[in-house]
Amino acid sequence: MKLARVALIAAAFVAAVAVCSSFGTGEANGQERIALRVEIDGAIGPASAMQFEEALAVAAERNAEVFILQMDTPGGLVTSMREIIADILASPVPVIGYVAPAGGHAASAGTYILYATHVAAMAPGTNLGAATPIEMGGPLPSFPGGDDKNNGPEAGKDPKNPPSGDAMIAKATNDAVALIRSLAELRGRNADWGEKAVREAASLSANAALQQHVVDFVARDTTELLQLADGRTVEIAGRKEVLATKGLQVETLEPGWVIRLLAVITDPNIAVILMLIGVYGLVFEFTSPGAVAPGVIGTICLLLGLYALNLLPISYAGLALMLLGIIFLVVEVFNPTVVLGLGGVAAVLLGSAMLLRIEGPGFEMSWAVIGTAAVLTLGLALLTGSYLWAARKNVPRVGAQAMQGLPAKVLDWEGNEGHVLARGERWRAKADEPLAVGDSVEVADVRGLVLTIRRRNVRSDGARQ
């Protein structure tokens, strides 16, 4: 018995030593050595930035060996791009940028993000580049080398001396060049080609990018990506770190419903439509109290639309014009005039065109949506106004005036007074002529609760004379 106890204690001691010796290894706390991956498919905007930030936080919390950012994007908003770049530069987990799948691309903002990653890779059949800034819905002109003159036919060809009208364009371009060159110098990539991608909207295929030292390697899939990244030295938070990525288990982080919803409503066209639905839902609720549903739906849509616009780089002058146009159209409903209706449509169209201060791929206002919304809004205002105008011309259907001319039947009569049946109700009545029970009469006037009636003459064909 004592021998069994000794053996049990010894076994427990050995197990404790084994557990203690496992501290500090990748499996000490039941954690596997993994690589987390997030996919950005589409335009880069507030939803993409939030998705990346949350996924990177999960990677740091789970002590992932590497974080794979897989991209297939036409570009997006500068603000969201800079947020992602800032997160990459501050990340405690190495970030591998991977342009995939085959046929995908990392254009515009995607090129800057790829330059910022610790390791950059592309799948065969992909491309990157065309990183010229886009502002106010149009691409910026490139500034190839030329003479130093600001006047004459050669004006504007020197990036250092653009014409005065292009001062803001030059500032945006030079800022973008400085950003991509600083990222290239930080990661040891081709800074000259990065500047060319900004100034001349140059693009490269996967193999050409490898030859130009823009990316580190070309990988067919994630498995090959991790094999080629294995053993590379990267700099994390000021210290050198050697990647051990071969054979890592890859886990993809899917966006939650909040991010999916944000990706939908931050489309400026959807945001404008939500705002219009919200405004007219509230108008309908105020004009028809007790309906409840229009007010609830309208409030939710209006808040979602305003929240989405708050996340986008909008012009408040354009938003004010849109709201002013909506107010004009609402007034048009209750006080039909041609001027307010046309002014409201013009204000909505101009405000929508001015709404986005800076546009990017996937974040442009659609004139088809704007025009359709304006036409439908004007049509609704004119239709409602026509009904109100017709209602004003109709004979009143309530009160004493509505009783005039109504048919009635004498129930009992004595002298000049008695009772009649009108609208299924028994009324006191008086008349200036003798009547008998059962006579058909009509209401001539109403004074208090007493009807003044007169005989109702009917022709032989049944029509009232």
Automatic annotation (TrEMBL):
The main place the protein resides is membrane
Q: Which portions of the chain have biased composition (kind: Basic and acidic residues)?
A: 146-160
Q: Which UniProt keywords apply?
A: Hydrolase, Membrane, Protease, Signal, Transmembrane, Transmembrane helix
GO molecular function terms noted in the UniProt entry: peptidase activity
Q: Where is the NfeD-like C-terminal domain?
A: 401-455
InterPro entries in the record, alphabetically? ClpP/crotonase-like_dom_sf, Membrane_assoc_protease, NA-bd_OB-fold, NfeD-like_C, NfeD1b_N, NfeD_membrane
Gene3D superfamilies from the xrefs? 2-enoyl-CoA Hydratase, Chain A, domain 1, Nucleic acid-binding proteins
Q: Where is the NfeD1b N-terminal domain?
A: 52-138
Question: From which residue to which does the signal peptide run?
Answer: 1-18
Q: Could you tell me the membrane topology recorded for this protein?
A: Multi-pass membrane protein
Task: From the record, give the transmembrane residue ranges.
Answer: 257-283, 290-308, 314-331, 338-356, 368-390
Q: Which domain of life is it from?
A: Bacteria
Q: Kindly list the GO CC terms recorded for this protein.
A: membrane
Residue span of region Disordered:
133-168
Query: Is Cell membrane found in the keyword set?
Result: no
Q: Tell me which Gene Ontology terms the entry assigns under biological process.
A: proteolysis
Which compartment or compartments is the protein found in?
Membrane
| Pfam families (alphabetical) | NfeD, NfeD1b_N, NfeD_membrane
Q: Which PANTHER family match?
A: INNER MEMBRANE PROTEIN YBBJ, NODULATION COMPETITIVENESS PROTEIN NFED
Q: What is this protein called?
A: Serine protease
